[in-house]
Amino acid sequence: MTAALELARVAYQEHRWTAARDAFGDAQRSRPLPARDLELAATTAFLLGLESEGVDTLTRAHEAFLAADDITGAARCAAWLGIQLTNSGSRARGGGWLARAQRLVHGPGEPGDAEGFLLIPLGLGSLYSGDADGALRAFDQLVDFAQRFGDRDILCLARLGQGQARVMAGQVEEGMSLFDEAMVAVTADEISPLPAGIVYCAVIGTCHLAYDLRRAHEWTVALDQWCAARPDMIPFSAQCQAYRAALYCLHGAWSEAYGAALLAEERFERGDREAAYGAFYQKGEIERLRGQFEAAEASYRRAGETGFEPQPGLALLFLARGHGEVALALIRGAVDGTDPGTRRRLLPALVAIELAAGHLADARAAADELRIGSSDSRMPMLRASAGQAHAAVLLEEGDAHGALAEARRASSLWRDLDVPFELAQCRSLIARAHRVLEDAASADVEFQAARAIFTQLGATPSVRELDVAGRTPGDAPLTGREVEVLRLVASGLTNKAIAAELYLSEKTVARHLGNIFAKLDLASRAAATAYAYQHRLV
Prior knowledge:
The protein has helices at residues 3-13, 17-30, 35-47, 51-67, 71-87, 91-105, 114-117, 119-128, 132-149, 152-168, 172-187, 193-209, 213-228, 237-250, 254-269, 276-290, 293-304, 313-320, 324-335, 340-356, 360-374, 380-397, 400-417, 420-436, 440-457, 460-470, 480-490, 495-502, 506-520, 525-534. It is an all-alpha fold.
């Protein structure tokens, strides 16, 4: 063995990927690398974001294993090539390599652990199509293979798949337990770098989907430390930043969230393709909440180019811009036919948009579904979200006492979770309930508290909405639909044009306008326009 090859192997073990790549390059200039070292060199290239080089080197490793009559090694390389190419969008090439791996493992001789790798695409296909039972069968079989051959990489990926399938099927606690089992192997550094990164990012993503904020925190911190120990690694680093952005956003550190999203975008441009959605979606979220609507739409569109719908962000953006019918079509389309975990994440936005559209029965149905799904959950974030949605529906139904109690419970949970934006939303609901109950002093205290939080966050659109709800001279705040009409009046549109914009009848628009004049104590469209500009609604 040459000195360069020894240096390459040591650098690989120490996670110094750039040094390992350079040393592998030096070593093979004097003599061809053994198959196993070619496989390590390929992994190094992938970890540096050099996908083309990684594919070429892994192809050479496959051929070297074949030359050495090591069918298991050759099949393993073929399977990884298939997985890598398929994930990067080269489905035809990836399918060809998976077919070759299939042929090798089913050829003469004893089956090897590489046969297990072929179950990974099968299980993933079932997951992506929403077939939780099919995915679970594939990953259960994969566990059997991994345990038979003692392959820790495959076993860890199998546990991950089992957990994802359980969560998709609504068995959240069982799924999370499987994730914890998989993460033990990752944090103990028992598995290879590529499977480790895959497990980290998939577990954190599913924790967010399942409202498991505690685990999302814990594993994001662990992923951050794992990436920091591998500073020249490109894959998974952008995903880490996207997850950090999501947590920062949740906890009200919006500047830090935006910075992390920009880092995720930069790392995506350097090669971490799996992070495209998260990088742009998180940028869009901050921009939307700050009122930078054009920038937010551009970010959401970029996120949507990955093939995943940028929801509920895009629908909420259209709602904030006064396009309630578009928002409703988007959120309903996203909710229909999706898996239970994703549906649960979208339901709070569905409730808000249905209420804004005046569809109280539909909002009630969505809120009830969310509440039933959270009734026996140990996830306080899910219970808080369900309680907040329920309170909003109760208020619109006229049950101010019930809304007040429900909103107080939800606000307590949001406060414990340190989620200021949702806390302010709940305090706004509490204020509105107090107003209906003719407790003006308590209503004012809650309105001012909510406004202070929104102002500190930089949530300009929410401050504007709150000013309309909290400072009207009449007995009742404007509804979401009335705010939409007021904005369009201030934009100079006639009743006929407003009706066309909102898909309403002119008679309905006139009724909304009459309500606006009465609530705000205004006598003309000009006065309504002045009010809208004074309160920064346009």
